[in-house]
Structures are given as C-alpha cells and as structure tokens.
Design goal:
By secondary structure, the chain is an alpha+beta fold. The chain folds into two domains: about 120 residues, Probable inorganic polyphosphate/atp-NAD kinase, domain 1 (Rossmann fold), CATH 3.40.50; about 140 residues, Probable inorganic polyphosphate/atp-NAD kinase, domain 2 (Tumour Suppressor Smad4). It is about 20% helix and about 40% strand. The chain has a 15-stranded mixed beta sheet that branches. The two termini are about 30 Å apart. The model has no long low-confidence stretch (mean pLDDT about 90).
C-alpha cells in the first residue's frame, strides 16, 4: 500500500499532515506522492477538488479520504481528533463510494478539448450579456440571456449551485442540475428562472457561445479566444471517496449549514 498526503498550505493543515505522516511511517505504510493507492487530503472541500485534478489521470487506482481543517466538510468526513481512525481504516481496507465526474467537450473551428469537474462546469460573462441557445439532447429548450449558466453534479449541488439558489441533492442520486446565473427575464426575454434537475443520461449543450466567455470547472478557468460550442454530461470517469462510517448525508448538512463552527472540533 502506498499513501500520499495532499495538504492545504495553512499552518494547522500542515501540522496535521506531519502528524499523519509520522503515524503512517510508524505503521510501516509507504508514503508515495506520485503513485499512491490512497490519498489523504487535509483541508476543506476545495482541497479534494485540487487533489482530484492533480491525480486526474490516475483516479482509477486511488481512494481518497479527508481530514477536515477547513470550514466545509461535504467531502472531508474526519476531524483532526480522528486521525487514528483514518489510519486504521486505511490499514483495514475501508470501502469507498464511487462518484461520477462531469465531463464537457469544448469545440471551436480549430480545436476540441475535454475537461472534467467534480462540482460544476459553468460559462460566465460578468461584463456583457451572455447569449446562447440551450439544448437538451439536441432539443432546443430556449435561448438564454444573462450572466451565465451553471451545470452541477449531485456533489456540486451544495457548492456554487446552492449560492445561485439551486437545489440541494441527496448523496447517491446521479443527476445533472442546470442553473441560470443572473438571467434576464421580462416580456422580451423569457427564462426558465428555476433549477432544472435532469437524469444522468442527458447531454446539455450551449451553442453558440461567444469568445471571451469564461469557462469554469471547479476551481479552474479557461478564457476562450474563439466562438465555441460546449456539450456537458455525466462522465464514465469516476473517483472513489472513503466516507466516515457514522456520518450520514444529513449529519453533514447539519454540521455544514446549521451548527456553530466551534461545535464541530
């Protein structure tokens, strides 16, 4: 077994990482940051996003387990006080849950590029009105006028999607959720003006999208220099996450959005 420790750069996370590395070595577990079987990520939910993109070509071989030192813990099930339990679960071959990534194909006149995301893929133009057509499986649903469009997974339902007024979706449901960003909605420009939750077999297409629009995928961004079309679907590419045995989705909801942050240490 080979374990990598992927850590956010703050003082507390670095301290916890050093403690974990000492315990791994004392348990005679090999630390290998390049070709691990297990990645322990230490920080917040954003730390997992960065870890997955870092190991994007090796996801089939890796199980992720998180220790929470940040403020959001949908992915980080373990507290710093539970490090021994993390080590024991690794040693005993803990079961993990598979989650599908979101995938998108970006096509211009000169190139095609595929990108992946855990939480969401979005197109945005904060400076000018974004105008595009929305297709579901090549069926034209409507023309969109506004700041942008966000497509999230179940995991991403509690991230940027929630800030936009989208729905929270329970763990284990495979869906795509389409949410508008600052849509124009009046007698001249009509909008769905509501989250649209789709089954995982659909493909969402935005076409055409003008150049200089920003494409965001998790914490990463692209600025396109050509007009383009983007197709988005739930990918066959997955990652594997080890959850706390005693944490339900509703425990996580409660600790993330309802409890005082000092209660959860």
């Amino acid at each position: 077994m080979k374990v990598a420790v992927y850590v956010r750069g703050d003082e507390l996370s670095v301290k916890i990482a050093e403690e974990i590395k000492k315990k791994l070595m004392s348990s005679k577990i090999t630390i290998d940051d390049e070709n691990p079987n297990i990645v322990i990520f230490i920080g917040g939910d954003g730390t997992l996003l960065r870890a997955i993109h870092y190991y994007i070509e090796k996801l089939d071989l890796i199980h992720f387990i998180g220790v929470r030192t940040g403020t959001l813990g949908f992915f980080c099930d373990y507290k710093p006080s539970e490090i021994e339990e993390v080590i024991n679960r690794i040693k005993n071959g803990a079961n993990s849950k598979k989650y599908r990534l979101i995938e998108a194909e970006i096509a211009t006149n000169t190139l095609k590029k595929n990108i992946f995301a855990v939480n969401e893929i979005r197109i945005e133009n904060p400076f000018h009105t974004l105008i595009t057509n929305i297709y579901i499986d090549d069926f034209l649903t409507n023309a969109f006028y506004g700041n942008g469009l966000n497509v999230s997974s179940q995991l991403g339902s509690s991230a940027y999607n929630r800030s936009l007024g989208g729905a929270l979706v329970e763990r284990g449901l495979e869906i795509l959720q389409l949410q508008e960003i600052a849509a124009l909605s009046n007698r001249s420009y009509r909008s769905i003006n509501s989250p649209l939750i789709l089954n995982p077999n659909h493909v969402i297409k935005f076409d055409p999208v003008a150049k200089k629009t920003i494409i965001g995928y998790d914490h990463l961004t692209l600025e396109m220099n050509e007009d383009y079309t983007i197709r988005i679907w739930l990918s066959d590419k997955t990652f594997q996450l080890i959850h706390h045995e005693n944490n339900t989705y509703f425990d996580v909801l409660n600790s993330t959005f309802m409890k005082d942050k000092n209660e959860d240490k």
